[in-house]
Amino acid sequence: MKTIKLIFTLIYCLTLVGCSSKKSQTLTILQFNIWQEGTVIKNGYNAVIDEIINSNADLIALSEVRNYNNTNLNERIVASLKEKGYTFYSEKSEDSGILSKYPILEQTQIFPLKNDHGSITKAIINVNGTEIAFYSGHLDYLNCALYLPRGYHGSTWKKLEEPITNIKEIEKVNLQSQRDDAINNFIKDAKNEIKKGRIVIYGGDNNEPSHLDWTTATKDLYDHNGVVMPWNVSIEIEKNGFVDTYRKVYPNPVTHPGFTYPANNEAINIEKLAWSPDADDRDRIDFIYYYPDARIQLNTSKVFGPKGDISKNKRVLEKTKDVFLEPLAIWPTDHKGVISEFTLFLN
């Protein structure tokens, strides 16, 4: 009996030594809509650069990359960061972009931009010997059905005679967008990357809320008008095994709504921020998702941006329990981002 106990004790000790010697590092992911390349806000581009540094992110999913005047925004950002002493890698993209502190092995658009109906870009990134398939999404902004229960049209943003609260009607409009097409492309492509043994992470402005936020507990909040909505994009992502980082850390949408849009931006007139001025359209439409893998462990997730929002054409300060990484000074966008920290166990 003593011999058996000794053997088990030895195995246990060896296991502890193996775990303690396993190499790991922090991996910080940022999802960041930069509002037309930071051009809407005065000195917005410089603020984008400053906030990228402020985030201390390793991999960044950018939305609203426009390459105005036939320029290469990704190249310009890399150069601006280098001037400040930070090395990043990036390749030219359209609408959805990727920045990385680690070498990009290859990059492709798995849902190319067409007629401004959204896009998804993928990069294979080598993080100290571990390959990550990192996706950046900026999904179709039209047929934005989150406005219907709030009494506004989802493409023209004109006020309706009354709110639309019938789930089938909301679903019909929602599926007229190309958000479902884009996310289906992502899921199909991501499954192939998982089979290849790569870690998969997605960051995107989905222009669609989460079913984890439109629940029985929130049906009478934020002008949901009683609607409990099974939003298609988040349902499909979850159904295929992906995890919403913010909701994983903070599962209660009442105490931690995690609103990312519309963000209060003191640098611009409120008319530019309120698309449905008579409604409370605060929502969480910016996300980071990951596929569970023994090599990554989610540690924290935060809202990246100002605590204030826009509701019913007024600037309001959140009194929730959400956790923020607040801006340094000028905030360059009408969105808030999401920043999530992982531990990456290296090969």
Q: Could you characterize the architecture of this molecule?
A:
- The chain has 347 residues and is an alpha+beta fold.
- Helix content is 24%, strand content 27%.
- The strands form 3 sheets. The protein has a 6-stranded mixed beta sheet. Strands 4-5-6-7-9-8 form a 6-stranded mixed beta sheet.
- A hairpin with a 6-residue loop joins β4 and β5.
- The chain is globular, with a radius of gyration of 21 Å.
- The two termini are 38 Å apart.
- The N terminus is likely disordered.
**Roughly how much helix do the residues carry, as a percent range?**
10-25%
Structural class call reads alpha+beta
Q: How many distinct beta strands?
A: 14
The end-to-end span amounts to 38 Å
Mean of residue pLDDT?
94
Oligomer: single chain
Number of helices: 8
* Overall 3D form: globular
Largest sheet: 6 strands, mixed
**C-alpha Rg (nearest Å):** 21 Å
Strand content: 25-35%
Order of helices and strands: HEHHEHEEEEHHEHEHEEEEEE
Unreliable sequence segments: 1-20
Question: Going across the major beta sheet, what is the strand order?
Answer: 3-2-1-14-10-13
